[in-house]
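Q: What structure does this chain adopt?
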Amino acid sequence: MNERILSELVDGLLSGAVSRNDFIEQMKTAPVRELGDVRLDVHRLLRRGFGEIIYSQSKSDEQLQKIAQAVKDGAEPCLFSRLCERQASLVRAVCPDLEYCQEARLGGLRRPKARYGGVTVISAGSSDVPVAEEAAMTAEYLECQVTRLYDVGVAGIHRLLSHASVLAESRAIVVVAGMEGALPSVVAGLSGCPVWGVPTSVGYGANLGGLTALLSMVNSCATGLSVVNIDNGLGAGVCAALSVRQASR
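A:
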């Protein structure tokens, strides 16, 4: 339920077009849509400004199709995260207009127009791009314009420094890095906006599946750097988008 539908319901109650009992019954069922073993949080849009993001990994085919059927006629953007190609085909059978990015493992319905600018997503290496794309596409579905700077890691730091003007103009930055995870500290030291570091599981043995990069980022001496979980591009994309949206209010 979005603000427009809720406003119409309240107006109907005040005008007498909607009875008191009907209003109460609709409000009882409005927060959650029951789909058997799945319960959609349909009031998240009212609380947070964006709808529920469907985590698709490990969901059954039946669950995914139930959810797709429930959201296909909605008016608001909808995201399916960690969506594999086979699952995307199942959702697309119900929602033909699904936009799917195999690299980011992200599917979206009804991409909105960009209302907020200033989100920049940076990847240290080309191997980190899938997680970076998850962050970028998430921010775009939260109505943000995104600038991408990929493969600009510390092994050739001049690649990043040539984009100093982009860093200066950014209002929120997501930095995705594996290996030793040094790039977010560098970016946070060069920019004056909030920076979110995303450690990735990319790297050799001592990378420990991203743990080394994670510990490096949380021990950064650069202030203004926050860190999300390993490979969590979606979480960082939401944080960056919320930061820009809140600053624009």
